[in-house]
Input
Amino acid sequence: MVKIGILTGSTRDSRVNIQVAEWVKSIADKRGDAEYELVDIKDYNLPRFNEPIPAIMSQDYVAREAHVWSEKISELDGFIFVTPEYNKGVTSGLKDAIDYLYVEWNNKAAGVVSYGSTLGVTATNDLRLILSVPKVAVVGPSVAMSLFTDFQDMREFNPAPFHEDTLNKVLDDVVAWSTALKSVRGLEVSV
Output
């Protein structure tokens, strides 16, 4: 069975991101097709990315603060990124968390759940481009939610019921691709 991490995309104290991630996990846990885990990037206390060499240049190089982060991403087979859209992109905290690592992301699958004033569509597209460099295969369907209709007063998450169907399509693809990509990583695949 594959292990899928549901990664938060915000570290702000006032974030609603955790509410969305918990919703994703509650739906995912009903499925029984993978092991799902909520992975809150805020828990890893990663400082601003300011390393002497990029992770892509040295497979062995991981910043001291990122060792636990590296271990967590290494043990996962796929991801659901839950990202808000800030200024038409992903948050700096999420970008830094991705940039700290390279090989740990390689040949894994991801889906995106986004939200924002324009449904987080630009953040989703931004994340697709960012994840292409560390060789993460981002699945086609994505969940896009509005701060105006899926949140009460932009603070309390209250998603429209149809989002659950879309999320299940994302999860279907992430589980299938994560399973297939295990063989690319040289791991035994059991269905």
User: Anything to note?
Assistant: The CA atoms of residues 151 and 157 lie 4 Å apart. The chain has five helices and eight strands. The first helix runs from residue 17 to 28.
